[in-house]
Target: Endonuclease V
Amino acid sequence: MPAVLAGMDGFVSEPWPTTEAEARAVQERLRRLVVTRDDFGPLRRIAAVDAHFSADGSATWAAVAELDADSLELTRSVLLCQPTRFPYIPGLLSFREAPAMVEAIGLLPEPPDLLVIDGQGTAHPRRFGLACHVGVLTGLPAIGVAKSRLVGRYEDLGETRGSRALLWHRREVIGAALRTRDGTNPLFVSPGHRVGLETCIQLVLRFAPRWRLPEPIRLADALSRMHG
DNA sequence: GCGACAG
DNA sequence: ATCTTGTCGC
Model:
């Protein structure tokens, strides 16, 4: 398996917010740049990114798994570690995970055609979840796939794969609960950047032909547990 | 005022 | 996210 290993020397070109107030200000500024309609070309290479933390939380590991969009087979991987720079605060998760993710994506020789992010996109109280943040910072199309709900309400959905229910918050559709496998809990899918909601749903079903989680996320997840 | 709260 | 084994069920 091809891999690149970078040390704890990562940096982000512009200063990263340190306080909650700063992060909220940045979030308010960046949220306006999110595009929630389809705006991407042919999908050849897709990539998923996942973050993990050391036991004491001081180090952040980011794993990127690049796959062929048709065969869903791993084509390349990146694993890097850098100091953690922000605490976990619900609604501000991206300020904890995005910097390492963006840097790891930058280590790919070629930018992928689509990012699959383990977290919410617009299904967020201020419409700026992790997938939006990473999408806007990289400029790449991104979709958010979360294993649980952050905000919003949805009606019951069918038990079979493909069943879905729109996720509503303050009279707005912010994403969808989507069943990718019969009898399992639904995933929460929402646009990250440059992808519309219906396309997000179609793509997640395509990328998760067998298991509950999309293959890209499964691979990135497995990779991120391989440090040490 | 009280509970909920991605990873 | 992390601490963590076996076990029940499709």
In short: Residues 51-55, 57, 88, 96-97, 183 of chain A lie near DNA strand C (CB under 10 Å from a C1'). Chain A has one domain: 13-224. Chain A has a mean pLDDT of 93.
